[in-house]
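Please go through the sequence line and token line underneath and see whether the fold suits the sequence. See right below:
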Amino acid sequence: MDAFNTYQSPLSSRYASKEMAHLFSPAMRFHTWRKLWLDLAIAEKELGLPITDQAIKEMQENLHLDAEQFELAAVEEKKRRHDVMAHVHTFGTAAPSAAGIIHLGATSCFVTDNADLIFLREALTLVLAKLVVVIDRFAAFARQYRDLPTLGFTHFQPAQLTTVGKRCTLWLQELLWDLRNIKRARDDLGFRGVKGTTGTQASFLSLFDGDHHKVEALDKRVTELSGFAYAYPVTSQTYSRKIEVDVLAPLASFGATAHKIATDIRLLANLKEVEEPFEKDQIGSSAMAYKRNPMRSERICSLSRHLMVLHQNALMTSSVQWFERTLDDSANRRVTLPEAFLTADIVLTTLQNVSEGLVVYPNVIARRIAQELPFMATENIIMEVVKKGGDRQEAHEKIRVLSHEAAKVVKEDGGENDLIQRIKRDPYFDSIKLGLEKLLDPRSFVGRAPEQVDKFLAEWVLPALDHEEFKKELEKGTKAELNV
């Protein structure tokens, strides 16, 4: 019952995946700290410091905290008002042979900042894994509906026809850019490494009796043990908070993509042309039983706005770091970084769920095309009259008058567009009446849309997904299930 009596973030308690929620959990954080202390001790021992095998062994055997360890750490933090030192002490009780060398030469940011970089890297990897699946699902949708004509919209007003599949490629292109940007951010991440209290490595230089070579070797070795290709060459006490600007920027950009896709789907749902999945027992409205509200797409929009805004926190935090460091970044980052990834995770899961169950209504789409196509076909009709020997200006005037009459029926009388019937009744157009149906075939109005879909999928989407890391995710073939 305690969980129901205190506030819990809906990001972790209601929406996010277990994998992402666990990554930013206290258990993972403090386990990672212990792993970093172990790596530091291993590297220091390799470089000649008097650290025993027993100390290393006890540290290796106690990397995960149990309930008693968490309780002890909480007591220590309350007493010491310092979370890192509380955990140094707690780790020392679990690994007594190592108690005297844990955190040797390091400052708090050795564990806090290096751990954060590890979490950023792993979180970006989880995001990429979900994003490639979303791209794959939308690609299948675009392929399926590559040549289904639909009314295009500019300014949300009827425009030239496109296809359902071609419209989906507009979404896919932005998702591909997000894939590129997020992967680039992950692959560019470095490690803070072993830099000391103000980034000068003075404490480590003292430990190794002024041997600069060993200090550099220590920095490199700890970086290798943590699985990073390189450490940032210079840091202050912290790694530059500009790193987080670069990490959250592609997440915010993805938020804009997801918002646009979900908004399009919400508009299409209003038009009854395309709908998100709607389960058998799902309730659209507590009052209006007939409703099928696009709640998943609305959730995507809602959380995407939050994701986009979080980038501003990273920018502001980066801009106010004084000299070698200030602590006014700490509380902000504890909130911003986990929330950014938990939010992106939820948006991706929901977007995948939507993409796997989109429902298309071709008859509704055809009916809307029929209402607008006669007006769009007027230029083709005029050109066909001219081909049959007619006068272009005379044909234009005839069409203009009939179009205005048909528009009055639609707008003022609430009737159907009867322009074609009016043309068929007018003797002036006798020369082209036999070919009218062909002139009004929606497929003749979509240009190269189907071919563009084929080319885009073959030359852009498939190559982007043809990566060993991504192929493993796609081979799993898992469906996205929502918690709520």
In short: Residues 123 and 341 are 7 Å apart (CA to CA). The chain has three domains: 19-104, 109-146+154-191+238-279+287-360+459-471, 364-440. The two ends are 20 Å apart (CA to CA).
